[in-house]
Specification:
Blueprint: E1 8-14, E2 20-26, E3 31-35, H1 49-53, E4 57-61, H2 78-91, E5 97-102, H3 104-115, E6 120-126, H4 134-149, H5 151-162, H6 165-169, H7 172-180, H8 186-200, E7 215-220, H9 228-237, E8 242-246, H10 253-256, H11 258-270
Parallel strand pairs: 3-4, 3-5, 5-6, 6-7, 7-8
Antiparallel strand pairs: 1-2, 2-4
Length: 273
């Protein structure tokens, strides 16, 4: 299901539990699956898509219950979200792909690599972690409290935690969009809650030594959401992995440092061929 570089193709994949997963594909060549974070949207990757799709069949998705994808009846676990990604690859006729996962997407990508390593050609883990830690547990408890008590403050705090301060100060439209998309309604809040609870229990650290595929780990020194010491721990757990920490960029460094992010990944992938 490859498409010309200039064409963006959007379609849906029906799953057995009733979920329909909205997929975006662009470009030709080897498959590159991009998995976003807690927000779970394909559109997170839009700023990066032109660079990635110039040399790859680039695939992204709205995770179940998010944006254009319906929730379905299956439990929202990291394992299920990984299975959803494999279903998307199957629908695209892709037996194996390189996978980029940012934040929550990195947890999903790790699970994919551990579950079906033969289907993961290379792994790029961005702003993510390997096991529970006190910093994230306390932060997510705070975020859950804000989500329940004041969804607007939840959305506002997420923007301040996710973006580099100078970049956000120059791009207030991003903040305004975050407020406009605040999870005001109970169903939207429930989806975020179940995703956070799944993340708080995520722990694959002791299994990561099994991974044999090439792995690049990226982080940012000023990431307040998922601090860079967690990427350092992740790199230590995966034999032969490469680690690069950007000095700036915040948690959403794939967006605020888009050129450096995409360039780093594309150059690294060139070394694999």
């Amino acid at each position: 299901m490859s498409v010309p570089n200039s064409e963006i193709r959007q379609f849906s994949v029906a799953l057995s539990d009733g979920a329909n997963i909205a997929v975006t594909a662009q470009g030709t060549g080897q498959a590159l699956l991009c998995i976003s974070g807690l927000g779970g949207t394909a559109s997170f990757w839009n700023p990066c898509m032109p660079a990635f799709a110039a040399k790859n069949q680039t695939i992204s998705l709205d995770q179940r219950g998010i944006a254009g994808s319906t929730r379905g009846s299956a439990a929202c676990t990291i394992e299920q979200l990984a299975a959803d990604c494999f279903a998307v690859l199957d629908a695209c006729g892709v037996p194996a792909a390189k996978v980029i996962g940012h934040s929550t997407g990195g947890c999903i990508a790790q699970t994919m690599a551990l579950t079906h390593p033969e289907r993961i050609q290379a792994l790029i883990l961005s702003g993510t972690w390997a096991r529970p830690n006190r910093y994230m547990q306390e932060l997510f408890k705070l975020r859950l409290g804000l989500l329940q008590s004041n969804p607007l403050e939840y959305a506002s705090s997420a923007a301040f935690l996710s973006y580099e301060s100078a970049w956000l100060n120059a791009n207030w439209s991003i903040y305004e969009s975050a407020l406009a998309g605040a999870p005001i309604e109970a169903p939207a809040q429930h989806i975020i809650q179940e995703r956070i609870h799944a993340l708080m229990g995520f722990d694959r650290k002791d299994e990561l030594k099994q991974l044999k595929m090439p792995c690049l780990i990226l982080g940012a020194r000023d990431d307040l959401m998922i601090p860079s010491f967690l990427q350092e721990e992740l790199a230590a757990a995966i034999p032969g992995s490469e680690l690069q920490i950007f000095n700036h960029g915040g948690h959403f460094f794939p967006l605020s440092r888009k050129e450096g992010f995409t360039h780093t990944i594309l150059k690294w992938m060139e070394t694999l061929t």
